[in-house]
């Protein structure tokens, strides 16, 4: 019988939940023990429920204030005592106190080659820079990072990139990046669960196995000096 992994993960979502689905279906070294959403009707919740995972949507209106809404969500996460909290399209800004309590045990995926293009509408902004920018973008992609206090910041763990094509529309580019996200995110979470990726002495560290796998899958590890600028430099 396959071993049930001890390492536990709670996933936070706000909508579609395709990354959450990929995290559930590619779990090897971890168990997803809960999927929580800041909206009651996030489509991603139903996939988790069908997979037999506790899935809860927190109604903003019933909570009254935003502060109470956040408090309820954090209480829901922390009651499950996960080893790792995974933000997969969670569109609510975290309170600093929550980030502090869960230092380096929260990871997020963002659809850009961070630190470029933090925030929303990354595909549109990248395409605009590809067509009109002073330093034209030639690549786009996604990044998984540990979460710090500011939005889309914190030590970058791994990135996956794809070239931008002349024929790209925002939708086409978004679809290609999403395919990368679905591979990169479970790989990172499996590696953290197996202790092949970790955070020690102010740096993201990788086992030789993680470094070899990243090279095989074409993932970049900025912590090992493999930095992508994403722009044309000549
Ligand atoms: C993804 O593009 C992710 O990078 C961003 O939000 C989107 C969520 O998509 N943070 P999904 O809900 O996982 O399908």
Q: What is the helix fraction of residues, given as a range?
A: 25-40%
Strand order of the largest sheet: 3-2-1-4-5-6-7
Number of strands: 9
Series of H and E elements: EHEHEHHEHEHEEHEEH
Model regions low in confidence, pLDDT < 50 over at least 5 residues: none
- Terminal-residue CA separation: 55 Å
Structure annotation, total helices = 8
General form: globular
Q: Average pLDDT across residues?
A: 94
The secondary-structure class comes to alpha/beta
As a percent range, the share of strand residues is 15-25%
**Structure ligands:** 5-O-phosphono-beta-D-ribofuranosylamine
Rg, Å, rounded: 18 Å
Question: Mind describing the biggest β-sheet?
Answer: 7 strands, mixed
Structure description:
It is built from 8 helices and 9 strands. With 234 residues, the chain is an alpha/beta fold. 5-O-phosphono-beta-D-ribofuranosylamine binds at residues 13, 15-20, 44, 88-89, 109-111, 142, 178, 181.
């Amino acid at each position: 019988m396959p071993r049930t992994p001890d390492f536990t993960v709670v996933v936070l979502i706000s909508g579609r939940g395709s990354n959450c689905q990929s995290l559930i279906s590619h779990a090897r070294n971890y168990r997803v023990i809960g999927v929580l959403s800041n909206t009651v009707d996030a489509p991603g919740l139903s996939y988790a429920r069908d997979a037999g995972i506790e899935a809860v949507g927190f109604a903003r209106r019933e909570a009254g204030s935003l502060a109470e809404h956040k408090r309820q969500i954090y209480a829901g996460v922390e009651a499950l005592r996960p080893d790792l909290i995974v933000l997969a399209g969670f569109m609510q800004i975290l309170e600093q106190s929550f980030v502090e309590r869960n230092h380096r045990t929260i990871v997020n995926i963002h659809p850009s080659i961070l630190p470029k293009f933090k925030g929303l509408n990354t595909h549109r902004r990248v395409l605009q820079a590809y067509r009109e920018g002073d330093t034209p973008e030639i690549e786009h992609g996604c990044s998984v990072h540990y979460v710090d206090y500011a939005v889309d910041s914190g030590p970058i763990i791994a990135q996956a990139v794809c070239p931008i094509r002349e024929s790209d529309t925002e939708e086409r580019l978004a679809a290609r990046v999403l395919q990368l996200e679905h591979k990169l995110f479970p790989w990172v979470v499996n590696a953290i669960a197996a202790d092949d990726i970790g955070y020690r002495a102010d740096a993201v560290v990788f086992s030789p196995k993680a470094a070899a796998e990243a090279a095989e899958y074409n993932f970049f590890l900025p912590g090992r000096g493999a930095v992508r600028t994403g722009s044309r430099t000549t």
